[in-house]
Amino acid sequence: MSARSRFSLGGLPREVAVLGAVAFCVALGFGIVATSLSLFAKSFGVSNLWAGSVIAVFAAFRFLAAPGAGWLVNRTGERLVLSGGIAIVAVSSLFAGLSQSFWQLFVLRGLGGVGSAMFTVSAAALLLRVVEPQQRARASSVFQAGFLVGGITGPLFGALLTSISLRLPFFVYTATLVAAGLIGLVFLSQSRLRAREEQVGTTHAPTPLREAVRSRAYLAAVINNFATGWGLFGLRMSLLPLFVTAGLGLGPGWVGIGLLVSALTQGVLLAPAGWFSDSRGRRPALLSGAVLLTLSFLLLATMETQWFYLLSMAVFGMGSALLGTTSVAVVGDVIGGRGGTPISVFQMASDAGAVVGPLVAGYLSDVASYSFAFAVTAAIAGLGALAAALMPETLKLTAAAPRTVDGQPTS
Description:
Growth Hormone, Chain: A, disordered N terminus, globular, two-stranded antiparallel sheet, mainly alpha, 2 domains
């Protein structure tokens, strides 16, 4: 088999590309508004702590709303929840741009977090619903690529828009969300979704959470998603900039260089990582990703030079590509491609890591050192590696036999 055919995304259903486009529009807008959010909050005369709270409230409401989003997916279907979630974020963002007080902005960002949870859980559930078992990791790589490209592009436009007006990014964010919603409504027709569901065998009832948590593989995916949230969405964006500037004594530009190295490495490896997981198995892919994530933080903890910092960012990108594509695929294998509640708990693990990680690591860096904080983070990632090493292979599970726990039928 040629390298081109190995890494090809051909054969994936159209719905995967549609979800990738939706993810791009959502991430593009989020990246745009992220550049002005704290500055806009500060314009109301609040402290830095309260300015940061408009970011925290979004994440907090995402976490709290995830179980309800999973329940809605089970009751009404992925398509309606996805469209509704995007609509909530769009409307809340529009009115956030029109806010006349800090508390209006605060409440509206919290509502946006509810819509974000609905979108994230339903999109992941829909992605798993429309693909065959041997396509799940590659489909996840397409979806994540949309987020990655949008997340890199958004801040570039956001910086320009912020220089014009602090309110303007919110309105552009609304426009990108409207585009995402329209793409979903037009190209994700209910009839096509039913046809895909019948073709891949996901017409069974959603898998209950109580069955999913009996699987060591599902628990391994949840633990690794927590570690990914701790490192990727939390620590990388909070403690790392301080470490580079205060710990290594480098200029702020090196923060951006490191993040770019990480993003480019992850982007280049997303498709190969998806192929590796779909063809060689979930267990080796998840274990490799967890080991690489652990190694990246060990490098930061022990080698405090700019070149090892860049090397750690590259290793971080490698691990993120493998974990991001494989964790979702493992969940899909365990639930047979259908089930909103197990997916919402899986997503909550990442959100919890993103909230707890920066707080714990920030405290440890204050009372001990940056190295100790990174070492603890490496230990968290190491737990994910241990869980992956102990899990059974799940790629053999099929949508036709959803009621399984670690490969054994349930009663």
